[in-house]
Design a protein that fits this description.
Layout lengths: L10 E6 L4 H16 L8 E6 L5 H15 L5 H8 L2 E5 L8 H9 L5 E6 L6 H10 L7 E5 L7 H12 L7 E3 L7 H11 L13 E9 L8 H4 L3 H19 L8 H14 L6 H6 E7 L7 H5 L9 E6 L11 E6 L6 E8 L18 E7 L3 E9 L8 E9 H5 L6 H11 L8 H19 L6 E4 L25 H4 L3
Parallel strand pairs: 1-2, 1-4, 2-3, 4-5, 5-6, 7-10, 8-15
Antiparallel strand pairs: 7-11, 8-9, 9-10, 11-12, 12-13, 13-14
Helix pairs in contact: 1-2, 1-14, 5-6, 6-15, 9-10, 9-15, 10-15
Length: 493
């Protein structure tokens, strides 16, 4: 069974960074799968742009190898038809030469929707957009997609957004965060606002804490040059984790109109209580992995003797509004942890009074778990009577649903949804520039407080669940905390 698919208008997608890891590992496979499903119209083209002086045949060979790795079940005939849609143009995007030729390539198909995907370092965004405008490629049918991170602080993000905004209006700028394209995140909207069951309980009166965890089992690998000086806070918390927090904590929007949804997300970011000075030391922990059972340490991977760049962050956030007053939000992310898993865990308060004698200590509070990866799904933890027991012997039980089993569908990769949302012109699952600004304004004081101290990040062995110091800022009785160690007891199997 496949999800309903609607063919889209004919378009060109121009991928700057067309020979990069993102293009070959995510973008081209996502477009190929949508082509197989019949959603990409006949004359649509995908044009890779990169510095390498490749022939079209050589580029298609590289793309074919990447697609066979990513989609091993690909039908050879469909793969051949898709590869025939690929174009390639060699261009140094940081220089002025060669843009006239690219303009000719783009306009050869006449007037049509064009999506310019900037899979390049953010430092190139401003110059790229200026050159698109100088060559007449920013017309009313043109859209631009920006990959994160947008800047490294509020000031640099504002400069990038200002430069891109001078070329493209906000309605045609799509700032992508692929976590928002995951089915579980979208189903969070359906769970909250499509059912009467949860929304009346979705507040501080009933919810004790929220944990948002993105654990990675890999190290920095070949991204060491990028990662050094960026770190987990900028790379993951500023975008992915804060966006997930917004989806959990937002007020019901008036509709699914993109502006209505993004307005409510922005209110959450602006309600985040600032972490400054001593609060940062008390409510955040940063770590860096060392050599361990899972492999080499961070310093060995980047080839340096010392670094203050964090590969792990655990922090406690709070929202200053009526719905969430007093509810801690634990955000945690780290590299070289024992497993790759992303989850949102909502812990409800314990029952105020037990009528079941002798089982008070076994009365586990209700817990809602939303798994983003792998095996996207939802689990609700309840208390139930143990069958065939004498008396009322209660045990924790769970109601489980994975989307693949519930709907009989192959889960779509987030990029499959988001790329076609750009073509549709639907910005609901993309970030507004005001969201970027608000997120950086909350993140910047944390970075500044870390920079002001001489202590290096706490060490943790590769393959462990992060530094034990990450539990120290929890209030007594508030465990489980934000460490991915909690994931082991909450993971959907």
């Amino acid at each position: 069974m496949e999800a309903p698919s609607l063919s889209l208008q004919t378009f060109d997608m121009v991928i700057f960074g067309g020979t990069g890891d993102l293009a070959f590992r995510k973008l081209l496979p996502a477009l190929f799968r949508r082509f197989v499903d019949g959603q990409i119209a006949g004359g649509s083209r995908v044009i890779g742009v990169a510095r390498e002086p490749l022939t079209l045949a050589a580029y298609r060979d590289l793309a074919e190898a990447a697609l066979r790795r990513a989609v091993p079940e690909a039908d050879p005939g469909q793969l051949r038809h898709f590869l025939n849609r690929l174009g390639y143009h060699a261009l140094d995007v940081g220089a002025d030469a060669g843009w006239t030729d690219l303009s000719a390539v783009c306009t050869a198909s006449g007037s049509r929707l064009r999506v310019f995907y900037l899979s390049t370092p953010p430092a190139l965004y401003a110059g790229l957009c200026r050159r698109l405008a100088a060559n007449g490629l920013n017309g009313p049918e043109a859209r631009v997609v920006l990959e994160k991170p947008i800047g490294h602080d509020a000031k640099s993000a504002a400069a990038i957004n200002g430069a891109v905004g001078a070329v493209f209006p906000e309605a045609r700028i799509f700032r992508i965060d692929h976590y928002l394209g995951k089915e579980t995140v979208q189903n969070l909207l359906a769970l909250r606002f499509g059912n009467v069951l949860f929304e009346p309980l979705w507040n501080a009166a009933h919810i004790a804490r929220v944990q948002i965890t993105v654990a990675e089992d890999m190290g920095v690998g070949t991204r060491g040059a990028y990662y050094e000086g960026v770190g987990a806070l900028r790379d993951m918390v500023q975008n992915h984790l804060l966006q997930l927090l917004c989806m959990v904590a937002m007020e019901p929007p008036a509709s699914l109109d993109p502006e209505a949804v993004r307005t409510e997300k922005l209110k959450v970011l602006r309600a985040l209580q600032p972490l400054r000075g001593s609060d940062v030391a008390r409510l955040t922990v940063r770590g860096q992995y060392t050599a361990g059972a899972a492999g080499a340490g961070y310093l060995q991977e980047i080839g340096r003797a010392a670094s203050r760049t964090e590969t792990f962050v655990a922090l406690r956030a709070a929202l200053g509004n009526w719905r969430w007053a007093g509810v801690p939000f634990y955000l945690c992310t780290g590299k070289r942890l024992p497993e790759r898993v992303s989850e949102i865990v909502v812990d409800f308060h314990a029952i105020p009074h037990s009528i079941f004698p002798g089982v008070e200590g076994a009365m586990a509070p209700n817990r809602l778990m939303l798994r983003l990866q792998p095996h996207e799904g939802i689990r609700l933890g309840l208390m139930g009577k143990y069958p065939d027991s004498d008396g009322m012997q209660l045990r924790p039980v769970s109601l489980d649903m994975t989307f693949a089993d519930a709907f009989g569908l192959r889960p779509r990769d987030a990029y499959e949804r988001l790329l076609l949302d750009v073509v549709r012109g639907d910005p609901t699952l993309f970030m507004h520039r005001d969201e970027i600004d608000a997120a950086w304004r909350w993140i910047d004081p944390i970075e500044e407080a870390w920079d002001a101290v001489v202590e290096a990040p706490f060490a943790y062995a590769a393959g462990s669940w992060g530094p034990p110091e990450a539990r120290l800022f929890l209030r007594p009785g508030e465990s489980p905390g934000p460490l991915p160690a909690a994931v082991r007891s909450t993971t959907l199997n």
